[in-house]
Write a structure and sequence with these properties.
The protein is mainly α. The protein is built from three helices and two strands, in the order βαααβ.
Length: about 55
């Protein structure tokens, strides 16, 4: 499973608007629960905007 991506406050809402998806879609992508092409794009955008990936144990 991919690590979780931590973002600053309000970033989920910003990503939701930028990517044109629902809040749960962004949250699941950032938590590494989904592995779709869209989830990968969301994760890359989050990291580009300052998010940090942490590895889950």
């Amino acid at each position: 499973m991919a690590g979780e991506i931590l973002t600053k406050r309000g970033e989920v809402k910003a990503l939701r608007h930028l990517m044109g998806v629902s809040e749960p879609t962004v949250i699941h992508a950032l938590q590494g629960k989904t592995k779709t092409d869209l989830a990968v794009k969301i994760r890359k955008m989050a990291i580009k905007r300052g998010g940090v990936e942490i590895q889950n144990k």
